[in-house]
Amino acid sequence: MRVAPRPRNEEFRLQKLLSYDILDTAPEEPFERITRIVAETIQAPISAISLVDRDRLWMKSRTGIGAREIPRNLAFCADAILYDHVFVIEDATKDQRFSANPLVTGGPSLRFYAGAPLRTPDGFNLGTLCVLDRQPR
Predict the structure, then answer these.
(1) Cα 41–91–127 angle (5° rounding)?
(2) What is the Cα–Cα distance from 17 to 96, expressed in whole angstroms?
(3) Span 51-79, pLDDT tens digits
(4) Which of 24, 87, 89, 107 could, after both became Cys, cross-link 80 (CB 3.0–4.6 A)?
(5) Whether the model pTM is above 0.85
(6) CA-closest candidate to residue 54, choices 17, 107, 109, 90
(7) Distance in angstroms (rounded) separating the CA atoms of residues 60 and 19
(8) Which helix (H) or strand (E) holds 35?
């Protein structure tokens, strides 16, 4: 299995993430509204507000997918937090980094991903606002 890349500032990034005290909190309507609006606007079946923890991706809010968390090594968002721009995977089956990913090869058969980093004012990418689709885009 592929090992998810880690930012150079990973320990400081994790400290910042934990300082927000948001991991494992209950769903909240403002976050739920954001994911619904994004999914509708982009016309994507799946959207999420995701936070990249030490060994998992945890979703504060999600629409179109049941899992609340997945292992970090499977998460497209683990790569997206390495960038300061929208990270796009047009067709995961054709991308060497993700073509063997169980989320691509099995259920839910993900093909497309676009994630914008959730960046703190002091420059730490904690997670993403993302959309996913079962069709390439």
Answers:
(1) 60
(2) 29
(3) 999 999 999 999 999 999 999 999 999 99
(4) 87
(5) yes
(6) 17
(7) 15
(8) helix 29-42
